[in-house]
Amino acid sequence: MYSYEEAMAGIESGMTVAAGGFGLCGIPENLIAEIKRLGVKDLTVLSNNCGVDGFGLGLLLEDKQISRIYASYVGENALFERQMLDGEIDVILTPQGTLAEKMRAGGAGIPAFYTATGYGTPIGEGKEVRQFNGRHYILEEAFHADFAIVKGWKADRYGNVVYRDTAQNFNPLAATCGKITVVEVEEIVEPGELAPDQIHTPGIYVDRIIQGTFEKRIEKRTVREG
């Protein structure tokens, strides 16, 4: 069993980190906290968003550990918004589907792909354009990360991972594009306890697995009146 210090061993300032999660759902919160503790800086982060103030990837904004982030939206994070507007962090807003495919392509060995999303907008500026069947497409390059940090539900000792419901989100995609992929899960089971057709991320992608406890915050609570 890895400790969190061992799980994130080797991460250095200036590296690229792919992080799973959507809002606060399925985020590798303890691995993020360990990066915060280690104090590495000048990180490039690949993630759907940047958490919230004081939690998730938002923790890394407090000491300005992130210098660049590829994300699909700013979300409910006032510090992220302020740093972006003040030019303290380089934010490359990326369409959500493109962001997901850039992660998946990196893990699949595909260096780049064409997509119609973003053509004719600032997203497509400076990118190669080709026409297929009368429609314009822009070239998007795949993501490659030094570390991928992922939150799963269950895993076996071989690193085969299962995600729970919508907490799957970007996690299996992020898991494929890291040189070192670290997965924290709620439960580690013995090999054979996970049915082969249940496994979302095969152990071949996973380098380190750790069992943790999780706060599982709700980003925005909505209740029905009456």
From TrEMBL:
One of its GO terms (molecular function) is succinyl-CoA:3-oxo-acid CoA-transferase activity. Pfam families: CoA_trans. Keywords: Transferase. The keyword Transferase applies. Its EC number is 2.8.3.5. It is an enzyme of class 2 (transferase). InterPro entries: 3-oxoacid_CoA-transf_A, CoA_trans_fam_I, NagB/RpiA_transferase-like. The keyword Transmembrane does not apply. This is 3-oxoacid CoA-transferase subunit A.
